[in-house]
């Protein structure tokens, strides 16, 4: 391990380079520039992973257990850290005193929760606003009223999703934007329905943001009533149910929301994010493409993220068209673990040339989520954890 001064110097240099690259990538994607003009990370991926291998004790030990003791030449030379480590160890190398934000996962049936600490929120804010603008906000009217069906960050300070939605409501929402869920009282349905009706009377589009369980409660309380939302209204649906309410299949839930709220089906979309990540991927929909649309449930990622699938038996990368465990590299995870194994199963599906030309970033493939892996720690990874924990 290098001394503190050298670590700080390396981190400061990486922070500056990452911020510069994010802005260049954001401008490129927003301008729909050709692939040939895509800004290049110029070694940032390897430089950040090498910094974490040398300076982050948990990841350094994990690399050592996998025989990765020298600088790699590609992302595949570094092992993705299973998200289970966020539950079992402190993956961040800085002290609690330096922590200004700390997010917890929603937990499991065993009560285990991941913890993701942030030393600053500069990259977090860039990741939130750059990606949301690239995939969603570019077509939003500045008058749009943004309604969150999640508690505000102040009401639930350990929710990464709540933090993200709070930033979007307060920064991008027009007059009348608000929060309609509290930790104490749950969904403020009467106030929400009146706000939706008022927006319809004012002919102002709304943009609803929330997890699936909030929308099920919304539909239950709305009953047979219909609300005719203004044209260009949108709905962001993410997350699962976490035992909070009855579960509804995604397609059925979205059909019901579209019929009850008068929001076009193709303007209902999801995102793929988690407590252990700083950035998010977004579902391909009418908000981020023009004309042709693929089947629902295909996610694409900003260029500062990379998605690779691994065979859970051999931990060898699999080719597009094959199922595998999802590993995501997030350039904004500078102060935790940049490359993580999510515990989800998916498949990378090719996009047609016409569709690729319409999606920001012009991706060749998109990710289809297939669910959770039976064992979030693949063979080899669990043994590495036991060896690491017993060091």
CATH superfamily label of the largest domain: Luciferase, Domain 3
Give the C-level CATH assignment of the largest domain. Answer: Mainly Beta
Q: How far is the first residue's CA from the last residue's CA? A: 17 Å
Q: CATH fold name of the largest domain, please?
A: Luciferase, domain 3
What is the oligomeric state here? single chain
Structural class: alpha/beta
> Could you say how many structural domains there are in total?
2
Order of helices and strands: HHHEHEEHEHEEEHEHEHEEEEEEEHEH
The overall strand count is 17
Q: Report the major sheet.
A: 8 strands, mixed
The percent range for strand residues is 15-25%
What's the helix count?
11
Rg, alpha carbons: 21 Å
The coarse silhouette is globular
Average residue-wise pLDDT: 90
Detail the poorly predicted runs: none
Please identify, by name, the CATH architecture of the largest domain.
Answer: Roll
């Amino acid at each position: 391990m290098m001394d503190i001064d050298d670590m700080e110097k390396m981190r400061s240099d990486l922070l500056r380079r990452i911020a510069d690259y994010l802005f260049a990538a954001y401008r490129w994607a927003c301008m729909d520039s050709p692939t040939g003009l895509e800004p290049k990370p110029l070694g940032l991926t390897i430089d950040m992973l090498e910094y974490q291998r040398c300076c982050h004790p948990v990841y350094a030990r994990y690399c050592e257990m996998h025989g990765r003791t020298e600088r790699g030449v590609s992302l595949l030379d570094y092992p993705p850290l299973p998200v289970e480590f966020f539950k079992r160890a402190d993956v961040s190398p800085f002290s609690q005193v330096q922590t200004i934000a700390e997010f917890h996962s929603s937990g499991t049936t065993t009560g285990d929760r991941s913890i993701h600490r942030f030393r600053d929120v500069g990259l977090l804010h860039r990741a939130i606003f750059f990606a949301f603008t690239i995939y969603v906000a570019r077509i939003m009217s500045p008058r749009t009223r943004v309604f969150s069906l999640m508690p505000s960050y102040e009401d639930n300070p350990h929710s990464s999703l709540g933090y993200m939605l709070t930033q979007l409501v307060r920064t991008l929402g027009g007059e009348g934007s608000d929060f309609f869920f509290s930790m104490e009282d749950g969904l403020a349905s009467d106030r929400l329905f009146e706000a939706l009706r008022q927006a319809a009377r004012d002919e102002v589009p709304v943009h609803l943001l929330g997890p699936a369980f909030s929308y099920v409660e919304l539909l239950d309380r709305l009953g047979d009533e219909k609300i005719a939302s203004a044209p260009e209204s949108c709905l962001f649906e993410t997350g699962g149910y976490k035992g909070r309410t009855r579960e509804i299949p995604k397609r059925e839930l979205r059909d019901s929301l579209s019929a009850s709220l008068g929001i076009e089906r193709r303007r209902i979309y999801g995102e793929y994010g988690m407590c252990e990540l700083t950035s998010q991927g977004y579902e391909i929909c009418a908000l981020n493409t023009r004309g042709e649309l693929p089947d629902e449930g295909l996610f694409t990622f900003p260029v500062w993220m990379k998605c690779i699938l691994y065979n859970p038996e051999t931990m060898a990368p699999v080719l597009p068209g094959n199922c595998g465990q999802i590993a995501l590299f997030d350039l904004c995870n500078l102060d935790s673990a940049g490359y993580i194994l999510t515990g989800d199963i998916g498949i990378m599906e090719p996009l047609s040339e016409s569709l690729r030309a319409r999606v920001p970033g012009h991706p060749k493939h998109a990710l289809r989520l297939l669910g959770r892996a039976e064992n979030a720690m693949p063979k080899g990874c669990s043994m590495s954890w036991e060896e690491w924990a017993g060091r």
